Amino acid sequence: MVTTLEGVDVVTVGVGWTGGIIAAECSKEGLKVVGLERGRERGTADFSMVHDEYRYAVRYELMQDLSKETLTFRNNRKQRALPMRQLGSFLLGVGLGGAGTHWNGQTWRFLPYDFEIKTMTDKKYGANKLSADYTIQDWGITYDELEPYFDRFEKTIGLSGEDKNPFWGKRSSDFPTPPMKKTPILQRFEKAATNLGYSPFMMPSANLSEAYENPDGQKINACQYCGFCERFGCEYGAKTSPEITVVPTAKETGNYDVRFNSNVVEVMKEGDKVTGVRYYDTVTFEEFIQPANVVVLTSYVMNNAKLLMVSNIGQQYDPETGQGSLGKNYAYQILPGATGFFDEQMNTFMGAGALGMTIDDFNGDTFDHGDLDFIHGASLSSTQTGSRPILSNPTPPGTPSWGAEFKKASIENFTRTLSVGGQGASMPHKENFLGLDDTYKDIYGVPLLQLTYNFTDQDRALHSYITEKAAGIVKEMGAKTVAASGEITDYDIVPYQTTHNTGGTIMGADPATSVVNNFLQHWDAENLFVIGAGNFAHNGGYNPTGTVGALAYRCAEGIIRYSREGGSLV
Amino acid sequence: MAEKDKNFSRRDFLKTSGIATGALIGGGIIGGLIGANTNKQDNATDSSSSSGGTKEASSSIRGLTFFKSMADFEVLSQATERIFPEDDLGPGAIGLAVPYFIDNQLAGSYGENSKEYMQAPFAQGEPTQGYQSRLKRNEMFMQGIQLMQEEADSRFKTKFVDLEGEQMDEILTAFQENEIKMRGVESQFFFRLLRQATLEGAYADPIYGGNANMDGWQMKGFPGHQLAYIKDIESEDFVEIKPKSLGMNH
Ligand SMILES: Cc1cc2nc3c(=O)[nH]c(=O)nc-3n(C[C@H](O)[C@H](O)[C@H](O)COP(=O)(O)OP(=O)(O)OC[C@H]3O[C@@H](n4cnc5c(N)ncnc54)[C@H](O)[C@@H]3O)c2cc1C
Ligand code: SF4
Asked: Among B36, B47, B83, B226, fewest CB within 10 Å belongs to which?
C-alpha cells in the first residue's frame, strides 16, 4: 500500500550540497521545501571522536552502505558488468550533508576554457585535434555567465584563498577569507615551482583560515589543522559543509523539512510534467508518494542518472548509434604525479584537507597542445592533508610490500615523503557511459546503475606528460629519490582515486545532445531539475564541487523563476 | 635476518606467552616475552614503558571472539609477524597484538561483510572489477589459514608455526603470487586482505585491540589523536609529540 502525502512546492532527493542549496534558496523565497534523505541526521556534535583513521577512513563510517545499493561496473561493452561489492575507486555519500560532510574542501571554479572546450579547441587546433570518438561539447553556458553564481557559492562557504593564479577566470570579488597558512612543506613546493618558472598559489580552501559569518548569517569556525579532514567530519565546524551552512539557513525559514531514512525509487511523470516522487521509509519499508510542483534530483551523479533511467525520463544514450543523451559523457579523472623521498623528517601528519599549493601552468589550454596528442591537462598540487599511518606506507621503488624491509622503509619514509599530484582532466569518449543493469538490483528491487568505463589514449598521453612535469618539481624540491607514477592501463575500480565522477546527466544548449538546459531544467519535463557533477559534459583538472555549487545556485534561481512564471527557462 | 629468525623460537614463545589462554597482553608483557625469546634483542621492546602505555591494558582480560581453535590463531599470529616483524625499531605484529585485533574484526561487521553488496549471482570478474567472491572475509581467513597449515605440511612436513621464518615467507609468497589454489577466492586476494589487516592492526587506535601501547604510532612518529596542530603547523623542525589514543580522552 502506498500512502500519498500532502503536496509541497519543491521536493529534493538527497540533502548534500546541491539539495541544501536548493532548500536554502527556495525556502527563503517562501516556497515549501521537503528534502528526502535516505541517510540519517548528523552534525558537528557527532564528530567529537572523529580522529579515528580505522573507523572513518578505512571502514568508511560515513559512506554509503553497499549492502543496500551499489552499481555494477565493466571496462567495456564486451565484459560482463559485475557489482562494486565494496567501496574503492570513489566513496559515495549518505546522510545529512552527503559527501559534503567528509570532503576535503579543495574548491575550484572550472576554467573559462572548460565551458567552451569544443569551440575553443576547434578554433585553435582545427576540428580534428581529437578523433570523433571523443564526444566533447560546450556546456551551453560561459564562465562569465556562471561567475555570479561562483561568487555566491564562495561567499556561502567562506572560501579561503588568494587571487594569484594567472590562468583562472576573472573574479568579481576577493576571496571571502584569506588563504591558509603557508607551511614549510608548502613553501618547499612554492620555491621549486617558482624556480622552474611556474606560478604557484595557495589552493582555495573550504577549511577556513579564520572564523567567518556568511551572508545567510551562518558561522563557520577557523581550521585547527588537525589532520583528520578527508573522509572525516570536522569536530570544530571549521570545514564548510551543508549541515552547518545551507541546511540551517533553510530550516530557519520555517519552510523546510528534511525527512530522513527516505529512499526515493521513482520520479512520477504524467505527460510532459513530473508530479512527485515515490520513496521507501528505510526502517519500516513503508511506501510513500510525495507530490510536488517541482522535483529536484540532488542525489549525486550516480543516483540522479539512475532515477531518470528507472523512471523512463529522457532518452538513454546508445553507444552503437550515438543517439540519446541520458548516461552519455560519463567521465572520471586521471591522477598523474610523483613522490619524493627526502632525508629530513617533516610534519607530514599535520595538515588540513585543502591545505596546499597549486600550479595551473599545465591545466586547461594554458600551454600549447599543437605538438601534443591530447588536449586539456591537470592542476598540479602539493597538499599537506595530514598523513595517517594505516593508509600511508610510502616506500621507495623496489621495496618489497611486506616483511622486514617493508617495515623499516615504510616507517622511515612516513615523515620523509612528499608528493606532487595532478588532477588530470578526463575527456568523454563514446564508449564510456552510464546505463541500467539488467541483472543486479538494490534492496528495493530497483535495477542498479551500470558503469562502462575505461581510460582512453587521450588519458594515457595526458597522464605521462603531466607525470613528467610533476617529477620535475619533486626533484627540484630536493628529493633524494623521485618515484613517478607508472603508466596507466585499464581503469580499476579497486583502489581509491577520487570521488570526482562526472557526466550522465549533461547540460547543454541543444536537447538532442544534453539532458538539461543551462538552468539544469530537464528538456522533457519543465518542472524537473537535475543537479550535480553529472551536469558536466567533460571533467576538468580540478575538484568538482565549486562548479557544482555555482550550478546549484543558478538552478535555484531557475526554480524560483519557474515557480512564478512556469514554462521553459531558456 | 635469517640469523635472527633462528633465534626466535615461535614454539617456545607461543607456549609461554599466555597468548594461548588469552590472559595477558598489555604490550609490555608480550613485548617482554618476545624480547626474552630473542637472544639478540636488546631492550627495544621496552619502549612500551616510555610510550605512555596504559597500565590498565596489562590487566585487562583478552580472549578470542572469532577463532575457535588456538592452532588457527597461532598460524594467523605467525603469518602477521612475518608481514610486520619485530626489529630494532620495535615490536612486530604479535607484540602489537595485531592477531587479537584481527580476531576481533573477523567477528564483527568487517568479517561478516555487513556493508558489502553480497547479492547473487556471483561470477568471476576481471581484476579491475574487484571483490567478486561469495565468501565473507572471515570465511576467507579460515580457509587461508587452513591452507597455510596444509602447505607447511606438504612442503616441509611440519606445522606452520614450527617453520623457520624463510619457510613461512615462501608459503606467504606463494599466496601472494596466486600459486595456492583457494576455493571461492584467489589466494592473492586473500594475501592482500591479510597484509592490509596486519597494517590496520599495527596502526589503528588501540581502542580496537591492536597497536598495543601505541607502539605502532611511536615507531612511525604518528601522534594519534591530537586536538589540533595549529600551533605547530608552521614549525620548520620535526615536532615529536607523545601519542594519544581516543581511549585516553573520552
Ligand atoms: C572523501 C571525499 C573527498 C572529497 N573532497 C573534495 C574536495 O576536496 N573538493 C571538492 O570539490 N569535492 C570533493 N569531494 C566531492 C564532493 O564531496 C562532492 O562533489 C559533493 O559532495 C557532491 O554534492 P552532491 O549534493 O551532488 O551529492 P552528495 O553530497 O553525494 O549528496 C547526495 C545525497 O543524496 C542522498 N541520496 C542518494 N540517493 C538517494 C535516494 N535514492 N533517496 C534519497 N536520498 C538519496 C545521499 O544519501 C546523499 O546524502 C570529495 C568527496 C569525497 C567522498
Ligand atoms: S583539518 Fe581543519 S577543517 Fe579539517 S577537520 Fe581538522 S579542523 Fe576541521
From this structure: B36
